[in-house]
Design brief:
Elements: E1 8-13, H1 19-28, E2 32-36, H2 44-52, E3 57-60, E4 63-64, H3 70-83, E5 88-93, H4 106-119, E6 127-129, H5 134-143, E7 146-147, H6 154-164, E8 169-170, E9 173-177, H7 182-194, H8 201-209, H9 214-217, H10 223-229, E10 230-232, H11 235-247, E11 253-258, H12 265-275
Parallel strand pairs: 1-2, 1-11, 2-3, 3-5, 4-5, 5-6, 6-7, 7-8, 9-10, 9-11
Helix pairs in contact: 1-2, 1-12, 3-4, 6-11, 7-10, 11-12
Protein name: LLM class F420-dependent oxidoreductase
InterPro entries: Bact_Lucif_Oxidored, Lucif-like_OxRdatse_MSMEG_4141, Luciferase-like_sf
GO cellular component, one term: cytosol
């Protein structure tokens, strides 16, 4: 893969990103900015963030295959890559079945879309695939630079690395709450995990695969589940949880600081001091 992500990046919904934030994150030493929330296929925000910065990579997490056709996305990729070579990783995926009535035969849709990206001139090593289960993880390793799992644990990372084998990118997302009070932290982390993810079957199936029971998943998640999916504590404690993904085989971890409606920079500054 020609795009260098570094070991630690940030993940933030498109609405919470700006060129000014990108400049500050780059100064802190993070390797990549992941744009969440299914950014539209014109990818103007990717270009804006790259224009404002000098070296940090930008990735999409993810462009939704049902929302934006591969020809449009491929043209956007070529425009951006020509201007900022080796700094843009195109993350794509199918989202979740509850989001679209057109959601049918998802694996076939992924294969078709990847074929179309090939035809649109997007290099395979510049694409990452959202992947949770074994079939799509294998496809990510065979057809793209690698996998971008969302809402997972180090146990999933270890399992995903076994499936991918050595070489393909493994870049999970991890939510964090920088608060040492468990009740306060769960009050922040639980809404970000439960709504919508604990209501979406691709995520709940994955959690069951990891050994969580329906009782732990239902009713907005048990404390233990929320603690795993939205790490909390001081910066050093949270950093240890992020490093657990790296120890389990991740190449790169993208960290989402919660709450999503607050300024994330204090959290990213605190984590940079112990992680970077």
């Amino acid at each position: 893969m020609t795009v260098q992500l570094g070991r630690i990046g940030i993940w933030r919904n498109a609405g919470g990103l700006s060129p000014e934030l990108a400049v500050e994150v780059e100064k802190l030493g993070y390797g990549a900015i992941w744009i969440g929330g299914s950014p539209p296929g014109h990818l103007d925000l990717v270009e804006d963030l790259l224009d404002a910065t000098g070296t940090i990579a930008v990735a999409t997490g993810i462009v939704n295959m049902w929302s934006d056709d591969a020809a449009t996305v491929g043209a956007s990729y070529r425009r951006i890559a020509a201007k900022h070579p080796d700094r843009f990783l195109l993350g794509v995926g199918i989202g979740h079945p509850e989001a679209t009535q057109a959601y049918q035969k998802p694996y076939d849709k992924i294969v078709e879309y990847l074929d179309q990206l090939d035809g649109a001139g997007v290099p395979r090593d510049a694409v990452a695939l959202a992947a949770l289960g074994p079939k799509v993880l294998r496809l990510a390793g065979e057809r793209t630079a690698g996998a971008h799992p969302y809402l997972t644990t180090p146990e999933h990372t270890r399992w995903a690395r076994e499936i991918l084998g050595d070489g393909p990118l493994l870049a999970p997302e991890q939510k964090v709450v920088l608060d040492t009070d468990p009740e306060r932290a769960r009050a922040i982390g639980r809404p970000a995990v439960a709504n919508p993810y604990l209501r979406l079957r691709n995520y709940t199936r994955n959690l069951e695969r990891l050994g969580y029971s329906r009782e732990e998943i239902d009713d907005d998640g048990s404390d233990a589940l929320i603690d795993a999916l939205a790490l909390h504590g001081d910066a050093a404690t949270v950093a240890g949880g992020v490093r657990a993904h790296l120890d389990a085989g991740a190449d790169h971890v993208n960290v989402q600081v919660l709450p999503i409606d607050a300024d994330p920079l204090p959290g990213y500054r605190a984590l940079a001091a112990v992680l970077l």
